[in-house]
Amino acid sequence: MTCAPVARAPAARGAGSIACVTERRVIAVDGPAGSGKSTAAQGVARALGLRYLDTGAMYRALTWWLQSQGLDTSDPGTVAEHAREPVITVGTDPAAPAIAVDGVDVSGPIRTREVSNAVSAVASVPQVREHLIAMQREIIARDAGPGGGIVAEGRDIGTVVAPQAALKVFLTASADARAHRRNADLAADPGVTAELTRDEQQRRDQADAPQTGVAADAVQIDSTGLRLAEVIGVITGLARDRLPGRAQHPDTARMG
To answer: Which residues of 111-148 are buried (b: 16+ CB within 10 A; e: fewer)?
Structure first.
């Protein structure tokens, strides 16, 4: 598994690296929470032998760290002041994606309802976006190099992070379908109901609206009535038509 350090990376470096992504093998998958973009993007990456980047996990990891330090995630000044302190590493192996903070695996803790309900406020802070977007661009440029390729998913991949992606997909679903999927993810919490999840999701949608955009050239897919395999099949078919070349990344080519 390959990991890239998120902390201590100058924004200018990441901003400049976006040129390296142009016309390379990048698939951008955007959409709101519960649309199925994470599982679909991961499945597409595995099907095509590409790397996989969950950008939302990076925002979640920072949110989790702030909460673990007892810091106020609703205060933009506090968030901005501490945004670069934790060292976050993100794996891009679609068979075993991982996220760590200061060397500690937080793949599970960042998926709690507590983090979900706080991450939008953290992600809206300009200093946070500048910092993490710079690293996302750096990771994409690295893994989309010669013989490589990557599926990056989030809310603004096709519009901000990698606007030159060879394929852009905006995945959505009905509010009820999205709430049902999110509720299934939080099934371990006995206090979670479909109604509560739907309400929380609506608040997140409103908070995340400024960061959620549909690229003009994105293919929009409504996954409400589709099985996961069907969504992966649609995106994979589009990718085979649009991505330049078919050589696999040397790491993913060995994945079974």
So the answer is: ebbebbebbbbbbbbebbbebbbbbbbbbbbbbbeeeb
